[in-house]
Design brief:
Elements lengths: L1 H10 L1 H14 L7 H10 L5 H13 L6 H13 L3 H13 L6 H13 L3 H14 L5 H13 L3 H10 L5 H14 L2 H10 L9 H14 L2 H14 L7 H13 L3 H9 L13 H13 L3 H13 L6 H13 L3 H13 L7 H13 L3 H14 L7 H14 L2 H14 L4 H13 L3 H14 L9 H5 L9 H9 L11
Amino acid sequence: MGRLIHHAVTNNLSSIKKLHAHLLTKGTLFILHDLHTQLISTYTSFFPSNNLQTLTNSFFKCMNSTNPLHFNVIISHFCRKGFPFLALTTFSFMHTNHVPLDTYALCSTLTASSKFKDVNFGKQIHAHVEKSGWSSSVFVGSALIDFYSKLLNVKDAALVFDEIPDRNTVCANALLSGYCEFGLWVKAFELIRKMPLLKLKYDHFTLSAALRACTGLSSVEMGRQLHSYLLRTMADIESDVFLQSTLIEMYGKCGMVEKAQLVFKLDGMDIRKERSRDVVFWTSMLGVYGKNGHYKEVIDLYSEMLREGIKPDGISFLTIISACGHTGQVDAGVKYFESMTNDFKLDPGPEHYSCLVDLLCRAGELNKAWELLNETCHHKGIGNCSVSMWGALLSACVDSGNIELGKLAAQRALELDPQNAGICVMLSNVYARLGMWDEIGRLRVLINQRGLRKDVGCSWVQGKWREVGEIFLIMCLVQFLEGEKIGGEQNSS
């Protein structure tokens, strides 16, 4: 029967409907429940998502099974195919029709809730878990922590972690992911330090999270200690692209470009396995060069990347176009921008257009930037993210003293975001540069009327170290695992 469905799929929707009707009239569909999954999977390839809700309900009416396995397969399929709302519908049907809910159904539906950004549905599942006794399951607990973490509700994620009676490394890593996504680097280190006390081992993800925390705090010394630990304890670091990329980003954030280069090339290491170097790995090094002002190296590395047969992604192009802007290579930057769509079939996003506008403005081509923005925002439909585009043009007008174009750019930006105080501040800088004090006065009245406030800047590195003085105890974790002094092989990193 599966072959018949596959044959129908290869033809057209009419064929699958005829087969569906045949299965209904013969009664086969009411007996062989596995066919429902295959048919639903087939229909998702043809129907738009707004029609699938009705179709799914029709299938469920034909299913008189109380075996959760049949429904679990459907939930899993919807999650994998990008229909999380249908996964939630399936779960609701199971609960309403007294189909037993097992760990697989609970975990898969929590995953669907996080993808659908439905915090209320996830909390209802959490309540059911507490009432039904599934809270003792480490699998369900990990799924709950992951759900809350992905929706940046780390407080509830931490509460779930504390309440799980039998925790494992997966639970800790799910909470670590939430801390890192929310930028709670201190909390991340506290959890890492607590893991040995809970008899939880570190894995690659744990160490990557620790490196991300070092990056977030710009703590190069702690990052070097972790790097040293990785070199001593991991026999296959060359095969872990994610760890290598995180190391590169950590050194780059701390301004240690040469250290990042050593990690990128693995200089001085005995490489025992074939290296894995994907586009993320190459883009990490491109980003290090770009953020530290090594723009020539960005262009050279991009050429090497193409020679290695690595297909660049949108982030790669963002870095290379920015580098062209800082080196004054306008024609090259435009060429790379066009290469995105022509050679690699990538759709430029608002950030790419903003970068191209900045490139043109740096070269003094303000009118070209204006024309590009008008064409992009009015004809290509890039809307709410284009404030940064107009901001780039306004910033260039501030530098060049182009008052007329600056006012137009500010007007367009404020139409999109009337509460953007930064745009008003830049416009006032244009007025101040030309001594237009009356205009500044009127702008201040407007700012006061709208109650706008500019965010106050702060020094992250210096300001946060008072809070994280005891974070240095992270080194004790390595001593705990190895039974040796942490600094012994620091220079090896």
